[in-house]
Amino acid sequence: MKRNAFVYTTTRKMAQWVFSILYRIETEKRTALPSHGPMIILPKHQYWTDIPIISLAFKPLLYFVAKKELFRYPLVREYLSLLGGLPVDRKQSIRTLDSFKVLVSLLRAGEQIVIFPEGKYVRNGVGSGKSRLLQMILKLQPELGYSIPFVPVGIRYGERSGWRRRIEVCVGSPLFAESESDAISLTHRAIEAISHLCRLPLSQSSEF
User: Which DSSP state fits 202?
Assistant: First the structure.
């Protein structure tokens, strides 16, 4: 199901209102991002709030790659799909391939897609980087005729001041890679950039 612009923008406005009460969100962009064409956004993942925070930090409407378990219930699945959610099954490659076909069409259309490279919540550090999906995306570059920018993003959760908590979204410089054989190197660079942007240490168990 394709993302619905009305549902997305309405939900984002509601989130903006609620989050303005609970949080003070500041966005810092280290460099100018491409104004057009496909882009992969690679944020740190610590809490469920990362998703609405990223949607507020980037003006264009986004798509989000998410684990299939979130799409378990029909009503939730439909709503997440309207918001631009793309389910990925990490255990069954065939289902992942089906979702990847949708992702391919989105990249061809110049959409911006969010992938959490850690693949799960990791707090007090930066966890393992998963390179498989990035490898599949890099394989597309010759066909697209376009070097896809991969943008690392750090999310810093500060201390509360009264009932509001400060959150800093730090958008790093785009990363590029030439071919699918560079996927592990790209993942490593992205994870290191996220660690720097978040000011959080790399996990000793990180595997790329």
Answer: B
- Rounded to whole angstroms, the Cα distance separating 98 from 89 reads 10
* Residue 203 placed within a domain: no
The mean pLDDT of 34-38, rounded to a whole number, is 83
This prediction's pTM: 0.90
Residue-wise pLDDT tens digits, 138-164: 988 888 888 999 999 999 999 887 888
Q: At 206, is the pLDDT very low, low, confident or very high (cuts 50, 70, 90)?
A: very low
The whole-angstrom separation of Cα 155 and Cα 46 is: 8
Q: Is residue 151 part of a domain?
A: yes
Q: Which two tokens stand for residue 124?
A: 């007090």
Residue 182 identity (one-letter amino acid): D
CATH number for 118: 3.40.1130.10
Confidence of residue 92 (pLDDT cuts 50, 70, 90): low
Per the structure, the count of domains in the chain is 1
Tokens encoding 14: 């509601």
Range of the domain at 117: 5-198
Instruction: Give the Cα separation of 131 and 89 in Å (integer).
Output: 15
